[in-house]
Task: structure prediction
Amino acid sequence: MADYKKTYIGDKAPITQEKLSQMAQNDQYNADLLTSAPRGILAWKKVTSNQVSTDTTGSGVPPTQIIAVTFNTEESRIIRVTFSCRGIQTSVIPNSMYAKIYVDDFQRGGWYKDWQLGGSTSKGLWVSSYTTDLASGPHTAFFALSGNAGAGATYTVPGGATYPIQLLVEDCGSA
Amino acid sequence: MTIKQYKQLTIGYSTELDTDLFVPMTNNDDYINQFAENAKGHLVVLDKIEETKDYAPNSSMYVTVSSGTTAHLYPDDKYLLTLQLRDFTLSVPASSRSGPQFWFIVNDMWVSMWYSMDDNVVDATGPLTITKSITAASIGITSEGEYPYNLVIETGTSGPTTTLYADFVSPINLTMERIV
Result:
């Protein structure tokens, strides 16, 4: 990509083939730069009520979705999926909990070990996952939760007007 | 260069192909270029560690996420460095609980630090085992060109091993994002 060069055209700088060529190169430069630039937020969702998972498979497969969004992208883009919440409550302390971000049923990241028993709320959670290998087209991102505390256990993500559960998908530029 | 506002141009059969047309066309190119050059938020660095590793006891352990970047950084612009860990385990002797500490090192300068000692204490009297999940930290830096950057873990002790957990789906992420 040739550098952008200011093109001077005026009374003392006549229109020439060379200058029109420079203008064409400048347009290409701008187009390339804008194509690689971030597109910003592609999708965002918030939930203001408690979301409960009773998934005790431990492995989280099949995952229990807490929050999900759909989005469109082109290929070869850096996609960041961010989940945030106030914390996670459990009815029984599990040995393991699986808190994961998925895109199209493929786990992209996440793990969690700070949780609280019963009504109290553990520390807030903010986690991002990055992917660069999505194909062009629609996709679904979701956050899933499960634990291995056994049957009857519940895993709750608290949600409310002042502490929403949020899922955000961003285009961070060309990969 | 003073950038003039974008001007809608209409070219028809009777339009003269003269300087009155091409001057605003070049101005429009400059206007678009101004926004293209100043696009923010691009992740110019995305590095990952995708395997769990034990780090030997020491006063400081340098975990190199990347030893530098060839990405183009605009001079004097600000970038946001963000580090995210899946989880880690530190074992610290009861006699020395001043750490652990996590640091970013950018361009040989220590620019950020955070630490945690109160999470999931397994044994409060013996060696202290800490596990912490999905930890993230960010720091803004001003670009002077290309940076080498490292994650540094300092336990402040000669205690046992530190383990950083990571795998393909839950890597240690380090990103650098243009913000200003």
In short: Residues 123 and 146 of chain A are 18 Å apart (CA to CA). The longest strand of chain A covers residues 137-147.
